[in-house]
Amino acid sequence: MTSTSTFWLDRPVFVTGATGLVGSWLVRRLVESGADVVCLVRDRLPDSEFVRSGLMAEVRVVHGDLCDEPLLRRTLAEYEIRTVFHLAAQTIVGVASREPVGTLEANIRGSYLLFDACRHARLVSEVVFASSDKAYGEHEVLPYAEDAPLQGSYPYDVSKSCADLIAQMYAQAFGLPIVITRCGNFFGGGDLNWNRLVPGTVRSILRGTPPIIRSDGSFIRDYFYVRDGAAVYMLLAEALAKDPSLKGEAFNFSYEQQVSVIELVQMISRLMQSTLQPVILNEASNEIRRQFLSARKARERLQWTPLYSLESGLGETIDWYRKLIGETA
Predict the structure, then answer these.
(1) For residue 175, is pLDDT > 60?
(2) What is the pTM for the complete model shown?
(3) What residues are labeled active site?
(4) Which residues, in sequence order, are CB contacts of 113 under 8 Å at separation 6+?
(5) What is the Cα–Cα distance from 23 to 174, expressed in whole angstroms?
(6) CA dist list (Å): 183 to 146, 197, 265, 297
(7) In terms of CB atoms within 10 Å, which of 132, 209, 238, 308 comes out highest?
(8) How far apart are CA 192 and CA 200, in angstroms?
(9) Which of 150, 148, 144 is nearest to 294 (CA)?
């Protein structure tokens, strides 16, 4: 699943969400592959991996908001963009529950404005849209396959269901060359949202304090390492360039390993040789209890295999936070 260097060499690429967790690793991989990367940045986040690592200085930056349609059209035209990666979103479930309007505005309106700008852009030939396993909503039949209905109920889930359906509409109604990813819960170095399970747990253990679990610990999820995420986005773009019939298709990516919250905390504790016991708050609300994905379609149609396992990804992530917290101590 290695990227084709000649495909990306000097290729004009537009990335939204570059300051986010997966976006920063995608930008790094694109830069290393020789792409000519343009990033839309709303807020300069000095603690983000995109800024801290110096990546921001290696790409072209367009400052603005995803809902600024004239800016999107100008960017795609002036930089002669060929490939678009749309990762920008409000991704925090708790924030979505407290401020649903802002989440719906960013995740739905921002997406359809970008898709429409891509529709009018003369040179755009591949669009990769980062949807989510949350787009499926809650189902009795698991694991989710790509033909499962998109039926989110909570604010964040609904925003991803809607944007996912809109992406499919642009492919079917207007021929937009777009493919859709639905991945599990991303983790990896660069995530500084300490309320999330992996960074919060690692930081607590490094500080010698018990990890905090917001839920009752029994919620089951897929967890997917960011470096595998960055690789699959590029893989999909290349696959779409070779096979235009993939437009409108969605692909799940997962280690196909179902893990409860408490099991993940225990795995991190074992890797860090910690005996600290977690504090279980049982305060989670507006969250799906059981979600996990089948990656069979990606394995069979794309010959995809992950670069990492859950455990090896966690190991690299722990090392990243050890270095970060050691530097700031």
Answers:
(1) yes
(2) 0.94
(3) 156
(4) 66, 67, 69, 72
(5) 27
(6) 11, 17, 20, 13
(7) 132
(8) 9
(9) 144
